[in-house]
Structures are given as structure tokens and as C-alpha cells.
Design brief:
The structure is a single chain. The protein is α/β, with parallel strands linked by helices. The protein is built from ten helices and seven strands. The chain has a single domain, classed as 3-Layer(aba) Sandwich (Rossmann fold), CATH 3.40.50.150. A seven-stranded mixed beta sheet has the order 3-2-1-4-5-7-6, sandwiched between helices. It starts with 6 loop residues before the first helix and ends with a strand.
Amino acid sequence: MAQDWNPESYARFQDLRLRPALDLIARVGDLPHGKVIDLGCGTGAAAEALADRWPERKIIGVDSSPAMIARAAATGAYRRVDLADLRDWEPGKPPALIFSNAVLHWVGDHAALLPRLAGMLAPGGMLAVQMPVQWGAPSHRFLRDFAADMFPDRFDFADWVPPVAAPVEYARLLAPLGLPDVWTTEYVQRLPRDGGVHPVRRFTESTALRPIAAELSQTELAAFLARYEAALDIAYPAEADGTVLFPFRRLFFTLRVR
């Protein structure tokens, strides 16, 4: 995707996006000596929580977005922030923890990536990862279905494969590398109305909607969003108080390397 991330848009639901990061931090056990890497740190939403959990360690933020990493640096919670492509990033020294919240689904070939990341860790170190697994839900399925139907010259999902595999596949992939723990959680998120815009559209527009919107003109995008919002109104109707309940499933794993 050529367009950089929009920190303001992504931060709109910061509390909801931070909760999985806190749940993941809580499952990280004792660590050997070394740094903590926040891989794909974004705006640094998890920086304070990481620094609170490991106050004596150097916390390093790494991200590929100049706009997001500028925000991360401004938090003051990182010892250093590095602008790098996550596919070929390497640490200077083996870290104690590589922590990655809601990032690695943007990076392909997990069968090669995860062993590579695990191999960077200090002995006894941990890899801790969270990724969304929302691809079959209406919020994300509508994006693919409508894009392919309305703009078949640009979108073809016939051979599309979800970027995150089933939990059992990660358990199998990680087992030869150390001691894995794999689980999923579905968060039932209550989203407030935002003027005339459906809140699920607001939630997806800074993430899953981005690559589709980038391929459309303003006129095309307006037509696409009108159809998307009409479908969201049916799939995620307003509650009596005007809010919308939005179930969102996420996959987690930790791996302690030998």
C-alpha cells in the first residue's frame, strides 16, 4: 500500500485496540536479560504498558510507517524508535521479548517469518503476537464481496487466502521452535454512533478498508461506502441506546524459545 497510515483515524478506537495488547502483555512470563522490541509499534499505544511492565528494560519501537513512528517517538516511552520494513528487520543484539500487536497479518509468509523472529531471540526469550481473525465476519467479508462485484477490473478474491491461519496451524508451526501457547478471544465491542457514519465503518476505515479505498476514485469510494454502510446497518443494527455491538475475534500466541 503506497499510502501511509493515518494516526488520527487509527487512534479513534484506541482503547478497544489497546485492550488485546494488555491481555497479551499479561500472558508474558519471566524474561532473560535483554531489550523489549515493540515490533510494529504504530503510534506507540502499547508503549506505556510495556514500560510499566518492564521499567528496567530498554523498550525499542519498530515500524514501517513514518507517520505512525513519529507519534510513537513523541510518547517518550521508547529508548529508541526505528523505521524499518518488518519483513527484513533485524535487532542489533538478541532481545528478551519481541512483542507484536495487530501487525503481522500485514506481513506475509508466516511459515518463514515466525521461525525467523524466534531465531532472533535470546535463549529463553519470548515472541508474543496478536492478530485479528475477523476475515469471515460481515465487517470484513462485505469489503471483499462488494469490491469484487463493483470493481472487478481491480479486485479479484477468487483465490484469496486469509492472512492469518487457524490457531492449530500456529500451534504446529511453533512447536518445533520452543513452548507455544495459542488462543483466541472474541471481544464484543460496543461502538458509539459517529454522526451519520456507521461505527463499524469507522472501525475498519483505518485498517481493513484502506487497501480497497486506495484503489478507488472519490466517486467510486462514495458509492462503495453507501453500499457497505447499508449492509452494516443490517448486520450490526443499533441497540436501544444507539450504540452498535461489534464482535471482533483475535488470535494470540506466545512462544518461549529454548
